Task: structure prediction
Amino acid sequence: MQVNLELLDEILDTVEKPARYVGGEWSAVCKDLGEVEVRVLLAFPDVYEVGMSHLGLRILYHILNRRDDVACERTFMPWVDMQGAMVEKRIPLYSLESYSPVRDFHILGFSLQYELSYTNVLAMLQLAGIPLRSAERSEADPLVIAGGASAYNPEPMAPFLDAILIGEGEEAIEEIVDVYKEAKKQNLSRAGLLEALAGVSGVYVPSFYEVHYRDDGKLAEISPTSRAAAYPVRKRVVKDIRAVPFPDRLVVPSIDVIHDRIMLEVFRGCSRGCRFCQAGMVYRPVRERKLGQLCELAERLVENTGYEEISLMSLSSADYSDIRELVSKLLARYAQAGVAVSLPSLRVDSFSVGLAKEVQKGRKSGLTFAPEAGTQRLRDVINKGVTREDLLEAASAAFSAGWQSIKLYFMIGLPTENEDDLAGMVDLAKEVLARGREELRRQGVSRHPEVTVSVSSFVPKAHTPFQWHPQAPMEELVARQDYLKKHLRGRGLKLSWHDVKASFLEAVFSRGDRRLAPAIEAAAARLGCKFDAWHEQLRFDNWMKAFEECHIDPRFYASSHWDYEDVLPWDHISVGVSKEYLVAESKRAAEGIPTPDCRLGECVGCGVCPELRVAPQVLARRIKGVS
Amino acid sequence: MGPAGRPFDKPVAVARLRLTKAGPARFMSHLDFIRAIERSARRAGLPMALSAGFHPHPRMSFSPALAVGISSECEFVDIELREKLAAGEVAERLESCLPPGIGLVSCSVIDPGVPALSSVIRAASYRLEFRPEDVGAADEVVRAVDAMLQADAVPVTRTTPKGVREVDLRPLVYDLRFERRDELSSLHLLVAAGAEGSARPLDVVQALVAYGALRDGARPIRIIREGLYVLRDGKFAFPC
Result:
């Protein structure tokens, strides 16, 4: 069945960027939905341009569509104007391939990538006509599942989701589909299906767990209520990255999306161990693809997509063992063919600048470094292995290679941060600018260098050594931003910062538990909160109203210190990194002791390899202490 | 490679394509369309001539931009080639590589050095479809169209991101004719298009509402660009 296309056509002529809502892209897969056994709809709770920039969604789409028994389609959150028009004309949320209502699908899979998209998940369920709470859904409703980066603490969304995949999806998604197929064949009830799904490694069924609370508001216990429920639920991990399919076709959007290029994942995971970084903990271990495989993939992707740029994706692409050779091979193959190569993230060192110089010949836009903190003391606390000299050398190298503007990423509100650290940021930015002036003068360039300082606010994240730490109160974060605004003035210096209200909400949900669900529901369903990640759409006052109505003090989650002994809302979810290791790292942070990267030789005992029975896949070196 | 990057490819031929843009593709902006053709040509493995410099890009030329939402039965694209290919070969390679909604109508291979399409196109024809209730009675329409075509000036306002400005439509409208059917009424337009000024279909709708041929608030259900023309021997003709 299709939605009313005539009505749809009418509203498409009245909304901004109608191409977001019509599909029809190159390589989009349109199957006959009546001919397949399982219909899956991948849903991204943000606009098309954001959702289509997400590599994971594009990978799962092709993995599922390779199967003859499955049709996989896509849907995104309609922008405010389209959402209003759809409600008015009673057009339910539909898929971009076949224009089928969401309710016609068997499995609805949400991509949860950031906390501030949660209200959009509920808005999409509402637009689809699916009950918001798992407990209220009937046999006729699709199975609503989710996965993604913010699913590592899925608790605030627990009542809304039937099942959640913790970890990597390439293999698990097929198993989920198989279980679904089998359950359908056996005529299992919804409850029976959920029990069967709980048997898939990495799948978490929230309704199979009960959370008990203490009088002081902290958690007392999380206990499974079903024999099918694992405790803990262990993150799903791809053991052999070289064996899982990486699609050689990608849907090529018809409109300009944020990351509109070939995204070639060179490796997964990062073991540098920055203590604030969730990605660095939850995606362990490091697994590199082979050089030859990457070159072959690049070849087929250029052929099949027609893209003009290949981006080498990972958490820190300069860390890839054979990065030099990979870059030069790709450049040799494509520089003459009008296909560019790019590196999205740069390490703070001159090696990385050299790589950037190689790929970005000619016009030099900007270069970004992330020293994160202003003093060596604080960089040691957060285990960011970057020195002042590293940064200044990298900056000099960049200016001498022809760049004229440099962006520096810092975080404010990190544990133990004081005024010296803020002064250190100012000092570093000015020193980088001075290097720029010196270098440009030496080259006889008349233009002035530019340094942009971009500051975000620390958000404590689950499964990191800083998970027990409070976020600094909003007033304090604003005061620190004001300090920087006052001191980072003058020719060539620019400053940008994040809305502290958005960071506060992120902290609430990143350390949240199930008691937050009613507030999310109130905010989304009654108070009109949506697109919270979009600065101009965030309605903070309504969020505060929602918390108040639900008798929730959001500061309990964002701004209070938790003890090592406390039961944490995500204690039943294991990413493989042990709690003992996180405690040890937290203590080392307090003493300012750095922890090395296990790729450099010595196993640091984070626990992920033995716990998940995996091993790092690193091309160049072997890691001692890991078999 | 020298400090200035790569030299440009010397074009030996130009593939001139006539394309349709409909269905989901009608919502692509002009820039989206350019990108889509470039990527299609790369998928097709056409030997495109690239520009010089560190960021070489294919050398292509497009007919005047089509507004988002309008379908077209006639878009022209010139792609400069660094190797000579037969028209049939270009068509065969490209056809299977175009995204849904973009179709290849015809293809010719011409000598390099032809003037850019955007500079030679002079006129465009459109078909606008209306619900019968949006169109005035037959005699009203005849009177209104006559009045409009005989007027010295037909001012309409255009709203752009830069503000509202007034445009005289009269010199830009060459022909205008209603065709009535039971379920739909079509308006056929021949108007100026290209670098020397152009009339937009919705400008004409605005004027026709003012003259009483169309009811207040009339909105075409569909707008289709049917043709694009150059001036050849004093007559409008297809560019290839």
About this structure: The mean pLDDT of chain A is 95. The CA atoms of residues 411 and 456 of chain A lie 5 Å apart.
